Amino acid sequence: MAASSRRPAPPRPATHLIFDMDGLLLDTEHLYTVVFQEICERFGKAYTWDLKSLVMGKKALEGAQIIRDILELPMTKEELLHESKMKQEKIFPNAALMPGVEKLIRHLHQHNVPIAIATSSAEVTFQMKTSKHKDFFSLFNHIVLGDDPDVKNSKPQPDAFLVCAKRFHPPPPPEKCLVFEDSPLGVQAALAAGMQVVMIPDENLNQDLTKEANLVLKSMEDFEPELFGLPPYD
Predict the structure, then answer these.
(1) Which residues are tagged catalytic?
(2) How many CA atoms lie within 13 A of 118 on its CB side?
(3) Beta bridge partners of 196
(4) I want to staple 40 with a disulfide (CB 3.0 to 4.6 A). Which of 47, 83, 116, 118 is the partner?
(5) Rounded to the nearest 5 degrees, what angle is found at the Cα of 225, between the Cα atoms of 137 and 189?
(6) pLDDT, tens digit (0-9, with 9 covering 90-100), for 23-69
(7) Which residues contact 70 (CB under 8 A, 6 or more apart)?
């Protein structure tokens, strides 16, 4: 099928914005890669980008099970998760904001555009990653975490985004929400929720996994708010 025939619909005006966190707002995905590469190499296994693309967006224990099962690691998913968290505690507090992110979020906040986060990260991990960016994360209306009791299923199911949208006051219809994601599973979840989605994938991700997004960018620095009816940069 020709690429032109599978292009998503052109951008529509959006009123509410929902952001993924890992690899999208915070530069944590390469830290995850370092951690799991270290563990897998101990058993002579490789943590490849093909495998990583199956894990991105999943809740922690589900991701650990996928890695364990595919690589046939001689440990339980719980042991893999525990060891990875021990390593993460040392490096996650140093996570930096991704390029262009702070400019966009402060711009949207200044113009009173409702913004929120829907992340697969659980509370403890979230606090670890955001410890040096409290002011930045306080700009969001609300944050839905991976261990939120209302989020029954992880991405690619739409639960996180639907729950996040419902917590705006008043809640917008899904078609008025614009999601920002870096993972294929996150894009699928946003589309399943009936929302538009901008994808900013890692350059290592297979490009075939980016085709479903409404818009694909190399960096948040390239985002033009007016494309979606939002206030342009000054």
Answers:
(1) 20, 22
(2) 35
(3) 178
(4) 47
(5) 65
(6) 999 999 889 999 999 999 999 999 999 999 999 988 899 999 999 99
(7) 51, 54
In the numeric block, the tokens 């690589």 are attached to 71
Residue 215, token pair as written in the block: 């818009």
The confidence score (pLDDT) of residue 2 equals: 39
Residues of the chain with pLDDT under 70: 1-7
What's the chain's Rg over C-alpha atoms? Answer: 17
Q: Which residue has the tokens 């998760």?
A: 81
Say which DSSP state 43 is in: T
Pairing of strands 196-199, 215-216: parallel
Look-up of token digits 């719980």: 78
Residue with tokens 């609300």, as numbered in its chain: 142
User: d(Cα 183, Cα 171) in Å, to the nearest integer?
Assistant: 25
Alpha carbons within 13 angstroms on the beta-carbon side of residue 76 total: 3
